[in-house]
Amino acid sequence: MPAPAENMKIDAARLWNSLMEMAKVGPGIAGGNNRQTLTDADAEGRALFQRWCKDAGCTMGLDQMGNMFAMREGADPEALPVYVGSHLDTQPTGGKYDGVLGVLGGLEVIRSLNDLGIRTKHPIVVTNWTNEEGTRYAPAMLASGVFAGIHTQDWAYDRVDAEGKRFGDELARIGWKGDEEVGARKMKAFFELHIEQGPILEAEGKDIGIVTHGQGLWWLQVTLTGKDAHTGSTPMHMRVNAGLGMARITELVHRIAMENQPDAVGAIGHVNVYPNSRNVIPGKAVFTVDFRSPDQAKLDGMKARLEAEAPQIAAELGLGIEIEVAGHFDPVTFDTGCVDALRRAADRLGYSHRDIVSGAGHDACWINRVAPTAMVMCPCVDGLSHNEAEEITQDWAAAGANVLFHAVVETAEIVE
Q1: Is the pTM of this model over 0.70?
Q2: For 7-25, what is each residue's pLDDT tens digit?
Q3: pLDDT digits (tens, 9 = 90+) for 20-61
Q4: What is the DSSP string of 12-37?
Q5: 80 with 122: CB under 8 angstroms?
Q6: Peptide bond just before 139 cis, omega within 30 deg
Q7: Shortest CA distance to 86 belongs to which of 378, 384, 406?
Q8: Which of 140, 315, 343, 351 allows an S-S link to 207, with CB 3.0 to 4.6 Å?
């Protein structure tokens, strides 16, 4: 198939302006965004995206999980569409680019094709996946997981937030529950543009990361049960301290990850201690262990070791312990054809690039199960993400979107 001309580029200023306009929806308190899934702010962001897509001549599809599909028609109505996109929802203290760059970068592909009067054989569809972040409703990548057959729709609808509000009820409340069957769409390919969310590209001065693999993940929720007691009047040898158990398991998690280097990470992120009073020894601790690796054997080995050794720590301290899986996906190997299309695009455009493994989960990790998929990344300042201080440059955004543009258009096939 013919490759796009090397001078074919997106409108960098228009893409940047769109990012800044979307950032006005659900503003954070420190320059970022709080546009959590299925909130009123999410609904407002969706409406803005829909308006932009309509202005670009797209038709909008909406499935029963709230996934949005903006389609630019192709010359061949029978040809499978090429999909591109990411997510518009954010962390409670999220940045302006995580996920959003991939959605609006996809929209910019369509806008630029319109500007240039270029037709493609295959339709191009820009997607906004619902609840990628998994903050309000666990697990992450929920709706793309239903699309790929990882989760059932009923199970997803029954997820509840911290206030006990059901996912299905909130989706209907904000008005973005569609009629289309989830997962019914077939794809020729799926491409996702994302910020790196790590420091490698910036540190090495690379314009582009070509994502070849995605790390697998185990989230293990640990519940330790001890005894609430007064911090001042309970002798040290008579304490059943759930906080101490959590501290020792935190050390264990770090040790397990360090002993599985390279290509393995582990940490404890989400933590709750009870009763969480300054003068009460914690009688209960609930926390989530996060293990990740692109190596299946390492990933599963870290989980098995935690499950074997954490109960020993609990027993030594007289604590009860429960360990349950809160989230999981296997390591991902992205499609070589799609990866090669991104490499060709970066070479054609003269961008420096390197292969990279995604340290975070993305909707592409699930879609890879049902369609040829790949990801392209641009740098972010200091590797910072899931933080209101998250930052990229206009040039970085443009480079990533240009590589996306070329790969998508090559795959969708220009009609002469």
Answers
A1: yes
A2: 899 999 999 999 999 999 9
A3: 999 999 999 999 999 999 999 999 999 999 999 999 999 999
A4: HHHHHHHHHHHHTSSB-SSSSB---T
A5: yes
A6: yes
A7: 378
A8: 351
